[in-house]
Design goal:
Oligomer: single chain
Strand content: over 45%
Mean pLDDT: 96
Distance between the termini: 39 Å
Helix content: under 10%
Low-confidence stretches: none
Structural class: mainly beta
């Protein structure tokens, strides 16, 4: 199992920025992908962005052009730079790892709260 620790959440005004970090308990080199999901109250968890081991990225339409995901294998971490934040970005953000070790695995962090005030 991989432990994931998120940080960087908080309260920000609309139009502001936050940078989320996710630190993994071991090398991320072999992970198929790492990403960020979010869950707002009363809503299902949704994909925000992910980055593959090859460096390819994918974003939800709602965050394209505003959020940037990055991966640092030396730090065993990924980051989510969030700019031009909107109240509808308010949610708990979860870090996710997808990996294969004989079977497909998914690991999750505990989540970090992001609140955007209008």
């Amino acid at each position: 199992q991989v432990q994931l620790v998120e940080s960087g959440g908080g309260l920000v005004q609309a139009g502001g920025s936050l940078r989320l970090s996710c630190a993994a308990s071991r090398s991320i080199f072999s992970f198929t992908s790492m990403g960020w999901y979010r869950q707002a109250p009363g809503k299902q968890r949704e994909l925000v962005a992910f980055v593959t081991s090859g460096g390819n990225t994918n974003y939800a339409d709602s965050v394209k052009g505003r959020f940037t995901i990055s991966r640092d294998s030396n730090q065993n971490a990924i980051y989510l730079q969030m700019n031009s934040l909107k109240p509808e970005d308010t949610a708990v953000y979860y870090c996710n790892v997808r990996r294969f070790d004989g079977a497909w695995r998914a690991d999750w962090g505990q989540g970090t709260q992001v609140t955007v005030s209008s």
